[in-house]
UniProtKB/TrEMBL annotation:
This is Threo-3-hydroxyaspartate ammonia-lyase. InterPro entries: TrpB-like_PALP, TrpB-like_PALP_sf. The lineage of its organism: Bacteria, Pseudomonadati, Pseudomonadota, Betaproteobacteria, Burkholderiales. Its EC number is 4.3.1.16. It comes from the Bacteria. Residues 27-310 form the Tryptophan synthase beta chain-like PALP domain. Gene3D superfamilies: 3.40.50.1100. Signal peptide: none annotated. It is an enzyme of class 4 (lyase). Its cofactor is pyridoxal 5'-phosphate. One of its GO terms (molecular function) is L-serine ammonia-lyase activity. PANTHER family: SERINE / THREONINE RACEMASE FAMILY MEMBER (PTHR43050), SERINE RACEMASE (PTHR43050:SF1). Keywords: Lyase, Pyridoxal phosphate. The keyword Chaperone does not apply. It comes from Alicycliphilus denitrificans (strain DSM 14773 / CIP 107495 / K601).
Length: 328
C-alpha cells in the first residue's frame, strides 16, 4: 500500500522561509573572478554559502524547520542523525531558539565534528556504525523523549529553507543562463528549482554529484529513485545513497541535467578557490565549479551561477588535499 505523500513545497514556501530567516541567516555575498571567467569563457557568479553561519547553507533549512515547531514540540526539542553539516545546523538553530537538541552520530565521527556539535550546546549520542542502525536508534530516542526528528533533506521546511540560497542569487543577479548546484540528497537542488521556477524560468538548473555516487543521475535517467551503496568520495556532504520522496519528484520535473565530478576535479576546484579567490571551500562545496568546468555543458558566452555550498573542512585534511593537487 502506498502511503499518502505529503504535499510538495512550492515557491511560496521558499518566500516564507526567506522572511523567517531575515536577520537570522547571513545574506551571503556573490563573488566574481576574472580568472574563472577567462578559464570558462563565461561570466561566473559564485554564491558563497561557505560564508553562511556555521559554514554551510544547511543552517537555512534547519532554522526554517525548527522555527515552525509548536510550543509543545519546542519544549521537547529536536533530534537529528548526522555527522556533518546538518548536525551543526540543527544544533545552532536549536540553541538560537532555546530548545533541546540531540544529535545521533557514529562513535568514530571526527572528534572535531563531535566537539563542534557539542560546542553549539547539543547532546551528542554516539552509536557503533558497524553493529547498530542509526535510524532505529533515532526513532527510539525520538519516541522515548517525545522529540521531533528533522531529516537532512527530505522535509518540506528544509527544502524551502535551502531554496532561499538561489532566491537571493536570482534576485541579485538577473538573466542567469545556468545554475550549478551541489547535490547529495537533493534538498538544496529541490529548493533551487522552486526558486528558479518563479524567479528565473529561463535558467537551466544543473545538479552536480560525485562521480562515485551518481545515484541521482541514475534516478533521473531511470525515472524512479535508484539506491546505491555508500559512495567512496572526498565529498562527505554528498554521500547520500538515494534521493528522497519529496526531492525526487521536484528534481525529476525541473532539473535540466545532472552531471558528475571526480575527486581530482573537486581538489582542483578547491585549489582554485584558495589560490585565486582566497576562500576556503570543503570538497562537497566545490562540486558546482567542478561540474561547470568538466561536466560537458557548453557555457561559452553564458551567464553562469555556481553555488559554493560549504566551507567546513578540517585544516589538516585541507592541507593534505591541496598538497595532492600541487604534487599532481
Ligand atoms: C548537505 C550538503 C550538500 C548536499 O545537500 P543536499 O540537500 O543533501 O543535496 C552539499 N554541500 C554541502 C556543503 C553540504 O553540507
Amino acid at each position: 500500500m502506498d502511503l499518502p505523500r505529503p504535499p510538495l513545497p512550492t515557491y511560496e514556501d521558499v518566500a516564507e522561509a526567506a522572511h523567517r530567516l531575515k536577520g537570522m541567516a547571513h545574506h551571503t555575498p556573490v563573488l566574481r573572478s576574472s580568472t574563472a571567467d577567462a578559464l570558462l569563457g563565461a561570466e561566473l557568479f559564485f554564491k558563497c554559502e561557505n560564508l553562511q553561519r556555521m559554514g554551510a547553507f544547511k543552517f537555512r533549512g534547519a532554522f526554517n524547520a525548527l522555527v515552525q515547531f509548536s510550543d509543545a514540540q519546542r519544549a521537547r526539542g529536536v533530534l537529528a542523525f548526522s555527522s556533518g553539516n546538518h548536525a551543526q545546523a540543527i544544533a545552532l538553530s536549536a540553541r538560537l531558539l532555546q530548545m533541546p537538541a540531540v544529535i545521533v552520530m557514529p562513535e568514530d565521527a571526527p572528534a572535531a565534528k563531535i566537539a563542534a556539535t557539542r560546542g553549539y550546546g547539543a547532546e551528542v549520542v554516539t552509536y557503533d556504525r558497524f553493529t547498530e542502525d542509526r535510524e532505529a536508534i533515532s526513532q527510539r530516542l525520538a519516541s522515548e523523549r517525545g522529540m521531533t526528528l528533522i531529516p537532512p533533506f527530505d522535509h518540506a521546511h528544509v527544502i524551502a529553507g535551502q531554496g532561499t540560497v538561489a532566491k537571493e542569487l536570482f534576485e541579485e543577479v538577473p538573466h542567469l543562463d545556468y545554475l550549478f548546484v551541489p547535490l547529495g540528497g537533493g534538498g538544496l537542488l529541490s529548493g533551487s528549482l522552486l526558486a528558479a521556477q518563479r524567479l528565473a524560468p529561463q535558467c537551466r538548473v544543473i545538479g552536480v554529484e560525485p562521480e562515485a555516487g551518481n545515484d541521482a543521475q541514475q534516478s533521473l535517467r531511470a525515472g524512479k529513485i535508484v539506491r546505491i551503496g555508500t559512495p567512496r568520495t572526498i565529498a562527505d556532504g554528498a554521500q547520500s545513497q538515494a534521493l528522497g520522496s519529496l526531492t525526487f519528484p521536484i528534481i525529476h520535473a525541473g532539473v535540466s541535467d545532472i552531471v558528475t565530478a571526480t575527486d581530482a576535479q573537486l581538489i582542483e576546484a578547491m585549489h582554485f578557490f584558495a589560490e585565486r579567490m582566497k576562500i576556503v571551500v570543503e570538497p562537497t562545496g566545490a562540486l558546482g565549479l567542478a561540474g561547470a568546468r568538466h561536466g560537458g555543458v557548453a557555457l561559452r558566452g553564458r551567464r553562469v551561477g555556481v553555488v559554493i555550498s560549504g566551507g567546513n573542512v578540517d585544516m589538516a585534511r585541507y592541507a593534505q588535499l591541496l598538497g595532492t593537487a600541487l604534487a599532481g
